[in-house]
Amino acid sequence: MTGFGAAASRGYPDMGLLSSGDVLENALSIAESMRMAASETKKDLVPCIVDGDTGYGGSATVRRTILNFGAAGMAGVLIEDQAGDSSEGGMKRCGHVDGKDVVPFEEALQRIEAAVAARDEYKALTGTDGPLILARTDARGSKTFAENGLQEGIRRCQAFRDAGADITFLESPRNQDEMKEYCDKVEGPKMANLIEGGKTPILSLDELDEMGFAIALYPLSLVSAATKAMNKVLDSIANGSKDYEKDLLEFQELKSAVGFDAYLK
Predict the structure, then answer these.
(1) Beta-sheet pairing, 49-51 with 76-80
(2) Where are the beta strands (DSSP E) in 138-219?
(3) Alpha carbon 113 to chain centroid distance?
(4) 122 CB contacts (<8 Å, ≥6 apart)?
(5) What is the distance between the alpha carbons of residues 11 and 216, in angstroms, rounded to a whole number?
(6) Which of 41, 45, 159, 229 sits at a 20 to 30 Å CA gap from 84?
(7) How far apart are the C-alpha atoms of 217 and 188, rounded to whole Å?
(8) What pLDDT digit, counting tens, does each position of 121-133 carry?
């Protein structure tokens, strides 16, 4: 569940404008939708990763964030090391948008340690595994580490793994060499974030697998495609044209896609 998409669904850019409650509400809705889809299609439940932002505060708030998302049914929670910048609106931002910065190393590590402890606490409380902790660093491309962001990002990812993070995520490496260096120097599962038009090259799944990535995200592909399609339809209607109709699903297909068949048998 992308933070960019969650913000966009509420009419905002991904610049730290949503509260933990906003994102938790989205997570609960998505978890319910995915349970219903699995039940109606008789297929396995697809696990969902949620963007937990910075944890929305200090260690106590990070703990609450992990416990709440675990209770909401999220399989993983991403926690990042971004910082706000009062000179540019006081907001963090999408990792592929210029102007971001990160908190100091020790503060970043404390966030991940708090998240890992909350994951383990969730299991102790419920008897079921807590959500996986995806530890993200935005050091690459940050203002503080403009000259050595890749090296600092790798250092942070190594420390996050030592602290118990399940998966690491070095945001926005600029080329394949940087992606490979990250994979070579950080052990454990790693995630690639692939944004069309963003700062990281879009590689095939086979290339990513060979390089050492375990997970590939395409967080904006559907948002972008849907936005373009909706604009095309609206423009066509505004111009008095019916050309858009050839791009629509048949009504029966649409009904099936949203679950009518399961209730009208």
Answers:
(1) parallel
(2) 167-170, 191-193, 215-217
(3) 19
(4) 66, 67, 70, 71, 128, 129, 130, 131
(5) 26
(6) 159
(7) 17
(8) 999 999 999 999 9
What would the pLDDT profile of 37-86 be if each residue is shown by its tens digit? 998 888 999 999 999 999 998 999 999 999 999 999 999 999 999 987 54
- Who's near 234: CB < 8 A, 6+ residues apart? none
**Dist. CA 58–CA 47, nearest whole Å:** 27
Q: Identify the helix (H) or strand (E) that includes residue 211.
A: helix 205-211
Do residues 83 and 93 touch, judged by C-beta distance below 8 A?
Answer: no
Give the number of other Cβ atoms within 10 Å of residue 109's Cβ.
18
- The residue type found at 19 is S
Please state the pTM of the whole predicted model. Answer: 0.91
**Tokens 């609206």 appear where?**
234
Residue ranges of E strands in the chain: 49-51, 76-80, 82-83, 101-102, 132-137, 167-170, 191-193, 215-217
CB 133 within 8 A of CB 165: yes
Between the CA of residue 8 and those of 11, 160, 197, 210, what are the distances in Å? 5, 29, 18, 33
Q: How many CA atoms lie within 13 A of 174 on its CB side?
A: 10
Nearest to 165 by CA among 145, 188, 192, 142: 188
